[in-house]
Amino acid sequence: MSVETTPRPPAAAGTTDSALRIRTTAGGLEPLDWDRVTRVVGEAVAGLADVSAEPVLAELRRNVYDGITADELALAPVLAARTLVEQEPGYSFVSARLLLDKARTEALSHLAGTPTQAGQQEMAGRYADYFRDYLRRGIELELLSPELATFDLDRITAALRPERDLELGFLGLQTLYDRYFLHHDGTRFELPQAFFLRVAMGLALREDDREARAVEFYDLLSTFRFMASTPTLFNAGTTRPQLSSCFLTTVEDDLGAIFQGYRNNALLAKYSGGLGNDWTPVRGLGAHIKGTNGQSQGVVPFLKIAGDTAVAVNQGGKRKGAACAYLETWHIDVEEFLDLRKNTGDDRRRTHDMNTANWVPDEFLRRVEADAEWTLFSPDEVPDLHDLYGTAFAERYRAYEAAADRGEIRVFRRVRAVTLWRRMLTMLFETGHPWITFKDPCNLRSPQQHAGVVHSSNLCTEITLNTNADEVAVCNLGSVNLARHVTAEGLDTDLLQRTVTTAVRMLDNVIDINFYTIPEAAASNLRHRPIGLGIMGYQDALFELGLPSASPAAVEFADRSMEHLSYYAIAASSRLARERGRYESFEGSLWSRGILPIDSLRLLAEAREGDALDVDFSSTLDWDELRERVRTTGMRNSNVMAIAPTATISNICGVGQSIEPLFRNLFVKSNMSGDFTVVNPHLVRELKRRGLWDEQMVSDLKLHDGGLGEIGRVPDEVKRLYATAFEVDSHWLVDAASRRQKWIDQAQSLNLYLAAPSGRKLDELYRHAWHKGLKTTYYLRTQSATHVEKSTLHGTDGRLNAVSPAVPASPPAGADACRIDDPGCEACQ
């Protein structure tokens, strides 16, 4: 249970500490051990700067009452410390340590069968014994794999570092406690270091020297230099090790295939997989059905069932089942597809809980820019368009338009391309969907062009893998914490290389250990072996380096940091190929031809022609040597990099998620564990250094929604460095993403922000993303949908001016888009 959702007990008026009593589980009363409470709080503040025990104890005295229950007393110090976080971020660690004391008591008592307590120092001496007891109990409950007991436990437990428990902030530990730690009937018996070691051992099961690799993996996880994705953390070392994050499917135009697709979705979502479904092959509204001599109701009714299936399978209560439906822009049902998330209209043709995304070919954007017509088709009459991209798609598409003009195609419709583009962007603003993703860059730069076509991305728009009727694409994710790899002097490339090398090995291990729920997923994953190594803590790295997000220096850092990560990741996969063998479908891939991600950018440039691509081709490392090594030695993995949202694992690591700018410097974050006050510790340190951090500053930050722009006494250089997401022009985010994208063989989950949205701004921003060679975009965040959190989140209506290259018009008023902290995006990481 989250401490955030526990109501406070009534205050005790006039009761002294010594007179307070605690109610036992049997209903009796016994003296409250205030000395222990004071000792625990004192231990929680030890070694932390700018915090003290007295404010916590004072808040505690106001809330503890005579007859308080043991459970309430265990939570009361945590709640007391939490109230102080907005004034001093250090109290987040105090809250975490107090929660850790509760978790220790809960775990030790469960394993011992009797109430047992231990302070942090005492626990350090008994952690190895605790781990053995924990392992034995987990296997006994059939939660952990018996294989874990076959490790050399003396060697394994010698690597445990109990002091690393203290590195967790409150949000991180609460997230682990609520959602990740093993439990029996709601009683947690897994502690942080046991959790990290369990995951590490689970990923080392097939290694030759399992113990050495498990220790290596444990060090990476427990120091927050790298974090595996949520499914891996949930399930590694358990009896059902479904460790993969994302699954992509193509739904064929056949009733049996459609219902098989629903079954596959349910089985994949059951064990924490996020789903991306390509629905483009399904014939459109009005198309002829030969078997019944009737007309099709189109793809939309089938999407309704798919959305309901995702909601019904809630992944064991750990998080919501989640799926995203993709449709190409030429599909005859695309206009209905745009309306799927609207709250008005026929509810039988709405999918309120399912994500949607447009799969947009370059030819459509060319028509938009030329203000030309666009033709919509039913895929049963133009079946090969689904598998074509680039120049081949454009030529075949124009041929079908000519055939339609000759009367050879039965179901089609002409629209003005700009009008459809306008509707796409308006729906994106009003409902948060469908997202804008680009088909041609995903395919023209895919290393696996010889093996098939990329028909969609995934739930969070960072995965770009081939799918067909026989193969369900699978990706295995994890993220490097960039904040742990920078100092004030710059990027620590040696440490980054070590981290990336180990991380790639861990992700490759996932493929062989993984529990596959459907055979199509196993066939695809074992044949191609894709992984997706990404980054998080990017904004924290910029703070450490003193680089404002809206600056050429930040764009350059995005380029150079991703270049190094790409180089090390590709080199690590090639090294694994030498050790373990190439992936099965390597021959014929871009890798086998010595074409690396930076080289595939030129393939896109050739297909775009003219000035439709505005990208940077600069590099600094010795790519020639790596090209030759990859060509001759091979690759262990068909795909190596993808930047996922990291909505949950970044909380565990205590850094900003993914490549996101800071949302607010002071706000309330809501997720499935509750509501958490979040203060930017980097800003607080800077303001303290300048003598500006005080109660008035806290009040000003609340008044101005966590932004510094209107606070006069804050220097301009501080405002620039700590500008929040809505204070940074999203063109800077696109430019930084463009520089990263040239190094990435898959894509990146990129949110875009508009403080004062208009049709013209959206039009310019998304065309800019296309011209900059991005493969995908994710949520559009607007001020109207993510208003200030002074105490709670609010939403206000906004109006979007229609998109037009010349004359704007006015569509309906906007509705709330996705919340900034929507837990749905936790499905990837």
SSE order and pairing:
Elements lengths: L20 E3 L5 E3 L2 H12 L7 H11 L4 E2 H13 L8 H22 L7 H21 L12 H5 L12 H11 L2 E2 L2 E2 L3 H12 L6 H13 L3 E3 L1 H6 L10 E5 L4 H16 L3 E5 L6 E5 L4 E4 L2 H13 L10 E6 L5 H5 L16 E6 L1 H9 L2 E5 L12 H16 L6 E5 H15 L3 E4 H6 L28 E9 L4 E2 L2 E2 L1 H21 L5 H10 L2 E6 L1 H8 L6 H29 L16 H12 L14 H11 L15 H5 L12 E6 L2 E6 L1 H9 L5 H9 L12 H6 L8 H12 L10 E3 L4 H13 L8 E3 L47
Parallel strand pairs: 1-3, 7-8, 8-11, 11-12, 12-15, 16-19, 22-23
Antiparallel strand pairs: 1-2, 4-5, 6-16, 7-16, 9-10, 13-14, 17-18, 20-21
Helix pairs in contact: 1-4, 2-3, 3-4, 4-5, 4-7, 8-9, 11-12, 18-21, 21-23, 21-28
Write structural notes for this entry.
Among the domains are: 3-223, no CATH class; 246-451, Anaerobic Ribonucleotide-triphosphate Reductase Large Chain. Helices cover 42% and strands 12% of the residues. The model is unreliable at 1-15 and 785-825 (pLDDT under 50). It is built from 29 helices and 23 strands. Strands 6, 7, 8, 11, 12, 15, 16 and 19 form an 8-stranded mixed β-sheet that branches. A 3-stranded mixed β-sheet has the order 2-1-3. Helix 4 crosses helix 5 (120-140). The chain is an alpha/beta fold.
